[in-house]
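Hello,

I think I submitted the FE3-S4 cluster job twice by accident. Can you confirm which output corresponds to this input? Input:
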Amino acid sequence: MEIILAENHGFCYGVKRAVEMADEAANSEGKSYTLGPIIHNPQVVGRLESKGVSPIQEVADIDEGTMIIRSHGVGPAIYAEAEEKGLHILDATCPHVKKAQQDAKSVIEDGMTLVILGEKNHPEVKSINLWANNKGIIIEDEESAKKLQIVEKMGVVVQTTFSQFKFNSIIEILEKKSKNLKIFKTICNATQERQNSAVELARNVDLMIVVGGKNSGNTNRLAEVCRDVGCMTHHIETSTE
Ligand code: F3S
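Support: Only one job matched these inputs. Its output is below.
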């Protein structure tokens, strides 16, 4: 049997960096915690936990040690709360997400209406909006874009994993909503590249095995795009499967 590996696969830059930072924390002195699971992958979370890096729900759960902020990022109040408690902060926010947070902040500081393209309940989108004092209008489809009021100045920031295709069609609508439209195209290509590679491979093989957390939106989506092109696909998490 021939096994072919997709051209783009594995952790993206931001997640890899976050996991490496958590690994380093595990090998250093003192107790370390991640604010929420570092990644949607139970095996990695379990491995880190066995090395003493446990996930916590909120800052209030701990009184000392190192707190790792995951790649999705958090709002400014979390930094303040952790600093006040004297916790050591290890910031693994992906630099692409950081850029989106800072862009959103600058849009509000410049007195523009902020529109964030993304999923309302996604932690990354929430963190971006928190840097803009929660003043952003979050939309994820063309219908909601059409309902927006016409404004003098509008700034647009995008969830890093947002679809390029949807971005283009929503921007077309937003161009009619403001004469001064400033677009911060904060899309990261890592997700799209992995989906493109998976589709390309699925079209040319008899069977696809997609490996990754069952609770990972990105991995589920990879399996979905492979099935969409008619390839028999199994989503597995461990080698025993
Ligand atoms: Fe990953 Fe950062 Fe892009 S977390 S998907 S490299 S925005």
